[in-house]
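Reminder to self: tokens first, then the designed residues, so the page reads top to bottom the way the pipeline ran.
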């Protein structure tokens, strides 16, 4: 049985970080398998789970601190936690994709700026249909 994960409830940071990366991904994937009747069809469930894990890891480690600030801001703007996790994951995914496409090093300041620029209106409804 996978560790219980619910994107609407913040995992205990200490317990989350004590899991292996593979166990974290499996916990997220298991949650999405359980709600597959509610969740839109995912083109790549493993990538989706890994993106959730990136966001949850940043929140649990409080690094960068802008991730938590963005999460709280997005939730105050009307997103549920699952939608806000998707927004954080999208920002991280965009930065990782830019690093690979442009063959440049990761730019923490650019990433922090992307987190600060996130707006709830861009994500409203993205996870709500899936929950």
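Designed residues (131 positions):
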């Amino acid at each position: 049985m996978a560790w219980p994960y619910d994107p609407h409830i913040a995992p205990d940071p200490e317990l989350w970080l004590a899991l292996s990366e593979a166990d974290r991904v499996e916990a997220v994937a298991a949650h999405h398998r359980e709600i597959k009747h509610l969740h839109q069809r995912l083109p790549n469930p493993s990538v989706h789970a890994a993106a959730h894990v990136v966001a949850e890891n940043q929140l649990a480690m409080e690094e960068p601190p802008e991730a938590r600030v963005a999460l709280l801001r997005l939730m105050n703007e009307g997103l549920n936690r699952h939608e806000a996790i998707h927004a954080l994951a999208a920002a991280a995914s965009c930065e990782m994709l830019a690093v690979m496409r442009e063959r440049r090093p990761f730019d923490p300041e650019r990433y922090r700026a992307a987190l600060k620029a996130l707006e709830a209106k861009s994500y409203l409804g993205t996870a709500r249909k899936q929950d």
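The mean pLDDT is 88.
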